[in-house]
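Summary: Need help interpreting a holo structure output

Steps to reproduce:
1. Submit the protein chain below together with the SMILES for zinc ion.
2. Request a joint structure prediction with the ligand placed.
3. Inspect the C-alpha cell block that comes back.

Expected: a single structure record containing both the chain and the bound molecule.
Actual: see attached output.

Input attached:
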Amino acid sequence: MTVVKILSFIKSLDIVKSYVYSDGGLVVEAQGFSKEKAEELAAWIPGLARQAEERLRLEHPVIMVLKDPEQELLVYQENDEAVIAAPEKGAASPLLKAMAGEGPRCEVCHGDLSQAVIRCPRCGAKIPFTADKCPRCGYRIDYRRCPYCGTVITATGAKAGLPRFFRKVAESFLILDDNK
Ligand SMILES: [Zn+2]
Ligand SMILES: [Zn+2]
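--- attached output ---
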C-alpha cells in the first residue's frame, strides 16, 4: 500500500473528514484541520516515526495511533511521505486494518477487500468494507456485496451461508455503492 493509495481510500470515506498528507514534514494537502494544526501534525511525523522505529523496531511503512488531546489520529508513513487521518469516534479499527493492508479477500473471487467501500444501509455513510457495523450510526451490517464479483459476503469475505430465499431477502436490503 502506498501513501497515495491510502489517501485516496481515506478521501472516499464519509467517516474521515480530516486528513493531512505530508512529505518531509511539510503539508502537501490537508482537509478539515486549520492551517496551523495541519502544519503542526505534519511537522511531528518524521521525528515520531523515527522514535517509534527505534523503540519498537517497526518496519516501514510505519503505522501509528496517536492520542491527540482532541481525538484519535491514525498515521501511515512510508519514507518521507505520511498520511494522518482523524476518523470519527469508533471508526479507527477498520481503518487501521485497511491502512495495514490486512484486509480480507473475497472467498469467491479473492479480490482484496482492504480498501473497498460500502454504504451504510441506514444512514448512507460511506464506510470501510471491513466494518461490521457502521461507525457513524451503529447499524450492524451482516452482509454486503463483493465489489469485484457481486457475491453476497460478510465483512471477512466469507460467502453468506443463507438459504436462497433468505439470501434474496438480504440482498433486497443491501444498498450498494454505485458511485465508484
Ligand atoms: Zn468477490
Ligand atoms: Zn450508518
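--- end attachment ---

Reviewer comment: The pocket of zinc ion (ligand 1) is lined by residues 106, 108-109, 111, 146, 148-149, 151 (CB under 6 Å). DSSP finds four helices and nine strands in the chain.
Status: needs-info
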